[in-house]
Amino acid sequence: MSSSDFYTSLHAQLAGLLSEERDWLANTANASALLFMELADINWTGFYFLRGDELILGPFQGKPACTRIPVGAGVCGTAVATGEAQLVEDVHEFPGHIACDAVSASEVVIPLYDGDRCLGVLDIDSPSLARFTEQDLAGLKGFAEVLLQNSDLSGA
User: Fold this and answer.
1) Quick one: which of 54, 115, 136, 139 is 20 to 30 A from 4 by CA?
2) Which of 117, 133, 118 shows the shortest CA–CA distance to 77?
3) Which InterPro entries does the UniProt entry name for this protein (predicted)?
């Protein structure tokens, strides 16, 4: 299956999961579980939500994680500070990387927006270097859009 077909299917699965529910907590829990189940070669997937000047851990799948991340710190905090998705081939080369799990080697982080307001991030880690591609980045941005369109994340 091509990357494009994979993400089209993943987006459809998420839309189906969320079709009867708008609650942000339930939907981010199911979204993280779906990603953990469907993506190969990952060791953590989940959400952090912005509270003031820090990100607070939300629903996730994987080992226990850092509970709070300051805006501007690590890959997640950088995504919020810059407003841009982060595709990191080697987290050990990323300035200020926060190692919640020493096994993680690469990471992709997608900021979640309601208009101009950043709500938080979708964060996915892999134990393999350069696991994520530009196609993954585009597909995961689309995944986040499906989540945002089908959930009331403004209350998150």
Assistant:
1) 115
2) 118
3) FRMsr_CS (IPR000614), GAF (IPR003018), GAF-like_dom_sf (IPR029016), Phosphatase_reg/MetRdx (IPR051330)
Q: Distance between CA 38 and CA 9 in Å, rounded?
A: 10
Q: For tokens 């990357």, name the residue.
A: 3
Domain ranges of the chain: 3-155
- Quote the pTM value: 0.95
DSSP state of 154: G
Edge-to-edge strands, sheet with 54-62: 68-70, 54-62, 44-51, 117-126, 106-114, 86-88
Compute the Cα dihedral for 89, 136, 71, 105 and give only its sign.
negative
User: Could you tell me which CATH number the domain at 3-155 has?
Assistant: 3.30.450.40
Inter-residue contact 4 to 135 (CB < 8 Å):
yes
Rounded distance, CA 153 to CA 119, Å? 7
